Amino acid sequence: HSTYAQKISDEKTEPEDFDRNKIIFGVDCERCHGPAAKHAAFQLENPTDTMGKFVINPGKLSRVQQLDQCALCHGGRLNKTKPSFTFQAGDKLSDYFQTDTVAKNATDIDVHGNQFGLLAASKCFKMSEMTCSSCHNSHENETGKIELFSQRCMTCHNETHGNVCAMSKKMGTVITQNCIDCHMPVQASKAIVFLREGEEKPSTAFMRSHYIKVYPEEIKKVLAFINQNSRKKPATQ
Fold it and tell me: Using CA atoms, how far apart are residues 65 and 46, in angstroms rounded to an integer?
């Protein structure tokens, strides 16, 4: 979860040693836009110039380049073949990491850590040119905004494209507010557990699946919730 750390050990030393004074903690702009020292220097000297220079615009990268950039952190466990933090936006992931070329069933991929693997196994992904940024705005914290993500699904799943959800008639307008819980439900991780204070048994971490498909049991839950709420509504006079 760091953007950069300057390596000070030689090529053969493992684990690597880094200069503790030259680390960029957290995920900042340079993780997606590349090294920005020249960009920052230029903008300081030219504050009225609104055209970004000496920096990468991820939106102009190819689909594969964009996906590689996201898969760097969201593509599961990768074995590096080159020093850490040498991969930059626009690079080819396989030039820096040994990737698993053996096909896996989506059911074998844990809900934690490899969101790209789950997304890539989805029919939506295979039949379109979607990328992670088709749904995610990396400049905004959109966690929990189910309706917003559902609306983004509707940009493809609509009458114009002829692929409206089969549950539209049963769910009515509610489907425009939440299609995520049906097709990308929160599921238990088999890899991540944690121990709450005062408890003896570990708890399972739950995360939203990026394997987009029909989950019959989840659809039943959503329909039951809708029916229950409709019965609670007061009758109109």
Answer: 30
Q: Which of the 8 DSSP states describes residue 82?
A: S
Task: Report pLDDT digits (tens) over 139-174.
Answer: 999 999 999 999 999 999 988 988 888 888 888 878
Strands 97-98 and 79-80: antiparallel
Helix or strand run (H / E) with residue 37: helix 37-45
Contact 133, 66 (CB under 8 A): yes
| Nearest alpha-carbon partner for 124 in 215, 216, 211, 207 | 211
Give bridge partners of residue 7 from the DSSP assignment. 18
The string of pLDDT tens digits covering residues 92-127 is 999 999 876 555 788 889 999 899 999 999 999 999
Rounded distance between C-alpha atoms, residue 214 and residue 65, angstroms: 29
163: which 2 tokens? 């692929």
Residue 226, by phi and psi: left (phi above 0), alpha (psi -120 to 50) or beta?
alpha
Cα separation, 75 vs 95, in Å, equals 15
